[in-house]
Amino acid sequence: MGAAKDLVRLLILVEVVVAIAAPGAAALSMDYYAMSCPFAEYIVRNVGCDASVLLDSTAGNTAEKDAPANKSLRGFEVIDKIKQMLEAHCPGVVSCADVLAFAARDAVLFAGGPYYGVPTGRRDGSRSVFSDTFTALPAPFLNASGLISLFSTHGFNVQDMVALSGGHTLGVAHCAAFKTRLTTETATLDSGLGSSLAAACKSGGDSATATFDRTSTAFDGVYFKELQQRRGLLSSDQTLFESPETKQLVNMFAMNPGYFFFAFQQGMLKMGQIDLKEGDHGEVRKSCRVVNSGRW
Asked: Is the pLDDT of residue 86 over 60?
């Protein structure tokens, strides 16, 4: 499928669903669109929570998608195409938050990862602010204790956190996110990788990119094997192997990719329950880039 490559990049958006979130409980449904838009999942897959990461910046506000933590995000145009098709078939029915959840699941699947059901019925939020990413997203320098604490505030346990970190099996990061590691964490960084990354950053500056593992377009367990070899790209990656709190899980996922897939599925199901908006809370955007005019 021609859009599969773009959808793979959308997995990077998964982490952003944690942003601006507080634990919430609501009843989503696996067949929410069964009557109102029965082909919604097919349309998403064929073309290719809170969806606030899709909102564009405006003259008075810098949106989340333009924050430093999100500079590696790609695939917004694919989401635009999906939403246009859905609006043509089922106007005002399928939220951008649900579109993103479907697309992330399909990205994992297309890249060789596990399939998991996506409960639907979310509404879209209206807040998308640059500064929120500094406190809501995992910083690339966080250690294991910091990651555990951050994820626990959203209802995730340690296994969930390590498994969801495994989403880094896809995608890239910019030098700005890992250049400090190259000089301050040499004891936990493979020397060959360190030299290669340093050369890339020197020639390309902060905007230069590097992949998280050697199979960056395949959803697999190589990310965890790289950590065992001290080839983690970010400090927040390598700390998972260096910390006694998480090292056993890294070893388990590296040895048994099937168990990693299972744990990732469970983590994604929990992620889909974060900061839910239903009914009269939120809206169904006509375009994922802007809130509906006159509503907020």
From this structure: yes
The yes-or-no verdict on residue 18 having pLDDT over 70 is: no
Nearest to 11 by CA among 114, 87, 86, 85: 114
Residue pLDDT, tens place only, 128-170: 444 444 445 688 999 999 999 999 988 899 999 999 999 999 8
Instruction: Give Cβ neighbours of residue 91 (< 8 Å, ≥ 6 apart).
Output: 286
CA-only gyration radius of the chain, Å: 19
Max Cα-Cα span within the chain:
57
Segments in the chain forming alpha helices (H): 4-9, 40-47, 76-89, 96-110, 132-136, 144-152, 158-165, 175-178, 181-184, 191-204, 222-228, 235-242, 247-255, 257-271
Tokens representing 249 are 């899980």
Q: Does the pTM of the predicted model rise above 0.70?
A: yes
The first and second tokens of residue 113, run together, are 């990862």
Q: Which residue has the tokens 């500079």?
A: 71
The DSSP call for residue 115 is -
